Amino acid sequence: MNNRLDFEKPIIELEQKIQELRNLASDESMDLSEEIKRLEERLVLVKKETFEKLSPWQRIQLARHPNRPYTLDYINSIMEGFIELAGDRLFGDDKSIVGGIAKFNGNSVAVLGHQKGRDTKENLKRNFGMSHPEGYRKALRLMKLAEKFKLPVIVFIDTPGAYPGIGAEERGQAEAIAHNLRDTARLRTPIIVIVIGEGGSGGALGLGLGNRILMLENAVYFVCTPEACGAILWKDRNKAPQAAKALGITAKDLYNTGILDEIISEPIEGAHRNYELTASGVKKALERNLAELEKLPVEEILKTRYEKYRKIGKYLEGDGIT
After folding, report:
1. For position 23, what pLDDT does the model report?
2. pLDDT at 2
3. Which regions of the chain are under pLDDT 50?
4. pLDDT at position 33, please?
């Protein structure tokens, strides 16, 4: 029952009732199989109804779930021989971003992504997935290494945003993110980005410019957190659910606007309920997209990446709107 969400209350109640009946049947040697079967069928229906109609705010709760698989979980599940490479060769090693070289289906790839922690100690080590400038510089170093050795780049996004502390600003936070955007735009190797949890503002964009942008079904991608948006627009952080709806941050929203290339399905109750099934979906999506991109010559990879971002949004040109 740990880490269950508020909207899961009807599911929890049914699960508890089923367990009570099983215990009673075992202790009293009673035949309650029909009643248990009826409740189990009801449970399946309630789960389906609940998770098919999630609001944007409820999807944010799933995206932030502390048991949700993180970057290293996916690397360990779908890749082999991961060798982590540390440091930006300028200041230090930011543990909120992990990356290195691994084998994917027998072929070498560069893989990197944000990494959160499971407990307080690890979250402090990982800075809650909020990266410093040295983290973005490390990521760019790994991407350029991939370019040098002609390796495709796989990126996992999961951050509430870049770290806004004074030290990060003093060491050039905005500049580091801007350099990443500039240099990854012209990186001469395929880049596939997968948003696996939160995709927060520039903190996500610092790693997130790619040929293909994929998202897990319950992941979110936002220009600022709904809490911050509520505080800015309504002077009330409790307006976060309303802000989440207005921002258009879900995978479905982003797919419909053409920003997202593919939605990866999750298990019925979220990625945290079945790591193996979720990882399998991620692996299949990667296999499919890598196979398509690796057929393209380098100049076509650069051209399609450029065109992808030119098509996003609306802008004024002359007398009309394009």
Report:
1. 84
2. 62
3. none
4. 82
Name the residue with tokens 């709760």.
61
**What is the CA 137 to chain-centroid distance, rounded?**
20
The token duo for 191 is 């880049």
Q: How far is CA 133 from the centre of its chain?
A: 20
Distance of CA 80 to the CA centre of its chain: 21
Structure confidence at residue 314 (pLDDT) = 67
Backbone angles phi and psi of 84, in degrees to 5: -75, 135
Q: At what angle do helices 56-63 and 226-234 cross, to 10 degrees?
A: 130
CA terminus-to-terminus distance, the chain: 51
Residue 167 burial (C-beta neighbours within 10 Å; 0-12, 13-18, 19+): exposed
Question: CATH homologous superfamily for 60-316?
Answer: 2-enoyl-CoA Hydratase; Chain A, domain 1 (3.90.226.10)
Q: Which of 57, 55, 54 is nearest to 240 (CA)?
A: 57
- pLDDT of 322: 53
Token pair belonging to 49: 């109804």
Query: What is the reported pLDDT for 204?
Result: 94
Length of the chain: 322
Torsion angle in degrees (nearest 10) through CA of 219, 281, 144, 213: -50
Q: Distance (Å, rounded) from C-alpha 44 to C-alpha 50?
A: 10
Give one word for 314, left, alpha or beta, with left for phi > 0 and alpha for psi -120 to 50: beta
